[in-house]
Amino acid sequence: QVQLVESGGGLVQPGGSLRLSCVVSGSIFSMGWYRQIPGKRRELVARIFATGTTNYVDSVKGRFTISRDSQKNKADLQMNSLTPEDTAVYYCYMRPTLQADMIWGQGTQVTVSS
After folding, report:
1. 3-state secondary structure 25-93
2. d(Cα 73, Cα 6) in Å, to the nearest integer?
């Protein structure tokens, strides 16, 4: 059974940084983070494929960096220059294979406020 454990998040002032981490069991096709604000659709923030290819939503390009340690089955999302618009619940996900359903973490709150 695939397991996914995420950590990080919290409260930070505008311009600050936070790091989210996600540890999964088993191999992946892709993994990353989505975020959701109440009343809005969950949106992809960043993802990384087993090949190392990464994708980012335009609003975080140049500020967020996703990385992966394949030996530890762990991915990190380094978030810099945070703004109040980044405030959301961030959900780690992983997809074991292209055809498999996505597996979600429990979500972690990121709040950017002065």
Report:
1. CCCCCEEEEEEECCCCCCEEEEEEECCCCEEECHHHCCCEEEEEECCCCEEEEEECCCCHHHCEEEEEE
2. 12
Sole residue written with tokens 């405030």: 87
Cβ distance 7 to 74 under 8 Å? no
| Single-letter amino acid code for the residue at 51 | T
Write out pLDDT tens, residues 54-89.
Answer: 999 999 999 999 999 988 889 999 999 999 999 999
Tens of pLDDT, residues 22-62: 999 988 999 999 999 999 999 999 999 999 999 999 999 99
Residue bearing tokens 């498999």: 100
